[in-house]
Amino acid sequence: MNGYAELHCLSNFSFQRGASSAQELFERAARLGYRALAITDECTLAGIVRAWQAAKKQDVALIVGSEVLIEGGPKLVLLAENLAGYQALCGLITRARRRAAKGTYRLLREDFEAPLDGLLAIWLEAQDAQPLPWLRSRFRERLWLGVELHRGADDNARLQRLLDLAQACALPAVACGDVHMHARGRRALQDCMSAIRQHLPVADAGAYLFANGERHLRRYEELAELYPGALLDETLRIAERCRFDLGQLQYRYPRELVPAGHDATSWLRHLVERGACWRWPQAVPERARAQLEHELSLIAELQYESYFLTVHDIVQFAREHSILCQGRGSAANSAVCFVLGITELDPTCNRLLFERFLSRERNEPPDIDVDFEHERREEVIQYVFRRYGRTRAALTAVVNTYHGAGAVRDVAKALGLPPDQVNALADCCGRWSNDPPSAERLQEAGFDPHNPLLRRVLVLTGELIGFPRHLSQHPGGFVVSEHALDTLVPVENASMAERTVIQWDKDDLDLVGLLKVDVLALGMLSALRRCFALIERYRGKLWTLATLPANDPATYAMISRADTIGAFQIESRAQMAMLPRLRPQTFYDLVIQVAIVRPGPIQGDMVHPYLRRRNGEEPVDFPSAELKPVFERTLGVPLFQEQVMELAIVAADYTPGEADELRRSMAAWKRHGGLEPHRQRLTSRMLEKGYTVAFTERIFRQIEGFGSYGFPESHAASFALLAYASCWLKCHEPAAYACALVNSWPMGFYSPDQILQDARRHGIQVRPVDVRHSDWDCSLEASDGTQPAIRLGLRMIRGMREEEARRIETARQAAAFSGVEDLCLRARLDASASERLADAGALSGLVGHRYQARWAVAGVEEQLPLFAGIAAPQESALSLPEPTEGENLLTDYDTLGTTLGPHPLALLRETLRAERCKSSHDLQAVEHGRAVSVAGLVIGRQRPQTASGVIFVTLEDEFGMINVVVWHDLAERQRRVLVQSQLLRIDGHLETVDGVRHLIAGRLIDLTQLLTGLDIRSRDFR
């Protein structure tokens, strides 16, 4: 036959074993002329979809398989001959994984009692014939003895022993490579990964390392020197039998949601008609009726009714249990989703097209994302598991890959660097950097970049970056099926209890046609629901997302002033800088605002042209008449992902299928590349139709930007709805909104301290934590003004447990507390809880200031049974000196994370004024371009990927915030000061553009020593 098929090969989805990707393996297999390549990762099919794609690209046949070790039994390579064999393999892996903790497996002999038709087995590392009877009973004529030779000293003896055993057992023998890497050059990385896997330095891991580098894909001539020709020919006979292809999988949606007397089509129509009467109680508008009929017709044609019924069922559960939810993404384009309650965005009031969501040309299932309150999403997840059972529902996986810091940390440990140097090296990488640390950063940290050991660490780090590290669970991407999921893909335990995940990454599902419903968490929905509840309790008015007044001038005026701390999506530094320039006045303006501060428009140089055209500073024109309908709504400037796809169809004659391929390539090019063919195709076709080179290059820069962070118009519209709702509440019910934000933390961009400081600057009264009035959550209390006061809740006290707070609430409802001892005894508070209350000032109303409270709780003792009912002796009152203002400030931040006293900078203002540092209030009178010095608490540091290394720093003082720009060179020169300072002085010059003020830093000075231990926490690089 003169050919070869490798039947035992591990990719890098055998975590910390395989040292090459499937793409690398198939590229080399193609160069070597292999007929087929089996990917047999250990008890997993996690990487098989990517292997399938690599195989098709290289035109080398893929054999689907897995290496397994049976507990107390033999080691096997299992290969799927056909669909039945693949399903049997998925079932085996599922049983082995579900039996063990995440990341491990236990495969038992009884797991093989199920039918194994279509599954071939290669028996590895055979020592004697003892397992043979059991293996024959399970695999009959589908069993081979594997012979693996790697130029060891005993190869000849090993070969003869295995051939003799095969003859004695009447088994055919076959050559295998036990491949762990595509080329010999990966030997060092493979050794390093083996050491990482064993948690040992390479120097101590000799027992776990291979003796040489022969476990790579070898040339046929090399193999022929080691193996008899019959063993090589047998690989081809096995490969010829293995005809299974992942394209044979047939996925079906669940069908039990349809009641008797209906089919999926009629039941969906019934629900739509009922929902239309709910949305439009007077009469369904003619435009809406036409849209609904159009959508229902297309859904029926493509047979996606069950998908919509599945999502509706999940949303209906949430609504019945008062869990706020909102569909987003492409679902916002659908009138059917609107009347089913999946989204609150009425598509008949917007210019979005249903074909962005579902079209016959793309012929793929729709993708609906539904956000739920982040604190109650688990209820929805468990409902889905109960509804469909563990066998038919699971979360999709996410392949976690090595980034710079994690890779350099693992490699440095494996090469024996001491822990302090390992940590220092990891610190030299950015949080999400995909590059090894630079020479400059290494020198700054005290390393010699030319040190041979360090250079070896960096080379191996570069090879390891991007490799799969482990499988984790998607935040909420569910796959549900009519039949058992493990007939399609193996299922394993998640790290969280009561959750299971399939082994495929979310990005692989479309390729094999699996449905995914995203049950996602959104903190803002928790905050909005809480805010609606607070308003209802305080004012008796129940608002919903659908009933909030639209197009409120006061709300848009607040947005245009960039008064959006705590608002959804438009609260970041970059968004707040854009708001006074764009000045949104309508809902579609808000859609633009949400989407415009993104890498796609920024990298494509689309932001400034749009602003100039919006402000009348340049005329609105279009690259061609045929593109006017595509870009008219954005003034001739492409801002949305959908517009790029439309442009490809209109200006480059892409088919809808090609446009969808472009969309997929945009989403994946950062990881896998693949955009270059589109660059050539787009450019050549657009140039042929008369477009300029400059325009085509600018469009492609935007396409690459969308690859970094794609943001479709449909997503922007859904987010704009929540942005408007949050801003309306902040404008008209600021106390309730601030209270809800604090109760929903952690979420959003700002800490509770910054939210409360902002509320106080807006005239909202904030009252301290007090056991006489405070519940667990912050609450609203009557005040003299139109807005209620905010009473801080016991949740603000660091270390306070909710169950302790609930006992305080219950005891207070029975009777008011007469003193500290009464509180501690009736609420059953231990010494630790009572001391936290005293330190936080929560006992001031009962006993006085903090020091008095701490003295009082120290004397509380629970009476022994013998003295029950006998009053404790009264001690004479002790007067302790009150804490100073500074001591109160320090303790406030230490125990509560905020203060209701003066801002820390107010106490330091005289010192700072002596240093000629201006406040944020003083800056209002400073002219553009003037040199100035400021100082403030560092509350945020950001380095957007589009900013070429520029760091944006946000400082806070007693009057507000100061936005600072730190150019890359200065950031590198003064990195320690920039990254480590809590109180930072900036010397620079002020720039004012369109009402937006930024301080351009020229020098950074760390003033943290002035805080004397104040616990201020910033939000950095998120």
TrEMBL record:
The keyword Mitochondrion does not apply. Its EC number is 2.7.7.7. It catalyses: DNA(n) + a 2'-deoxyribonucleoside 5'-triphosphate = DNA(n+1) + diphosphate. SUPFAM superfamilies: PHP domain-like. Keywords: Cytoplasm, DNA damage, DNA repair, DNA replication, DNA-directed DNA polymerase, Nucleotidyltransferase, Transferase. InterPro entries: DNA_pol3_alpha_NTPase_dom, DNA_pol3_finger, DnaE2, DnaE2/DnaE/PolC, DNAPol_HHH, NA-bd_OB_tRNA, PHP_dom, Pol/His_phosphatase_N. The keyword Cytoplasm applies. Belongs to the DNA polymerase type-C family. DnaE2 subfamily. DNA polymerase involved in damage-induced mutagenesis and translesion synthesis (TLS). It is not the major replicative DNA polymerase. This is Error-prone DNA polymerase.
